[in-house]
Amino acid sequence: MIAITGASGQLGRLVIQQLLRSIPASGIVALARKPESVRDLGVQARPFDYERPGTLAAALAGVDKLLLISSSEVGRRTPQHKAVIDAARAAGVKLVAYTSLLHAPQSPLGLAPEHVETEAHLKASGLPFVLLRNGWYTENYTASIPSALAHGAFLGSAGAGRIASAARADYAAAAAAVLLREDQAGKTYELAGDIPYTLTDLAAEIARQSGKPVAYQDLPEAEFKAVLVGAGLPEGLAALLADSDAGAAKGALLDEGRQLSRLLGRATTPMADSVAAFLKG
């Protein structure tokens, strides 16, 4: 029995869809705060709220492998993840796979500390575990295409930093592959796209495919954050995005080990393909 936390999220749904290609629906449990939101997937759905630790172990009854998808609530992740790990231990889960961050222990990103703390709690728990240190999702950038087309500029703070992103579906397929394999306990995967690019490259690709002028405009981190806030993003999210771009300039989003494509048994989705998919809608 394989269970997925955050099953109603974009990554969680994709992982379940991947698993369904290999195992019956009866062998999958979708864990979500609102289980009705995942009933369309056709698998078992159980209520699972990180903020209600006392309920979590019962929801994991009968689960052999658990994919702990990192919470979207930055700043609350460590206690939420600890609650899930403790519940998994109490429920007798045999393997926990955790979606961490690329090179988490060395990463300069503001997102890194909560991942490092979660990894440490996993190690201290005594549970068998595997770390899926995910790099950047290309969708984090393609979401800015409408603004780039409207203003003729793709804004960021990444300088000439090379980014080895991959499509969200690639990371989902890798997670499913690990969950379906045996002997994964103790492994750490640094997962990233095969072909790194700069934001200048990305802007040029958007221009090429759209037929409209788009150039990369590099901004200081504080100025980029201010632009994001001005565009309506919450202060905390704007700060994280600007920090991540600044980290990219330092190589935080680069890995050339190609562990992701080896797990997939195929090349990762090229940035150009993700741009094309977004433009097609």
UniProtKB/TrEMBL annotation:
Q: Where is the NAD(P)-binding domain?
A: 6-179
Which Pfam family, any one, appears in the UniProt record?
A: NAD_binding_10
Q: Which InterPro entries match?
A: NAD(P)-bd_dom, NAD(P)-bd_dom_sf, NmrA-type_oxidoreductase
Coiled-coil positions = none
Give the protein's recorded name: NAD(P)-dependent oxidoreductase
UniProt source species: Mesoterricola silvestris
Q: What is the lineage of its organism?
A: Bacteria, Pseudomonadati, Acidobacteriota, Holophagae, Holophagales
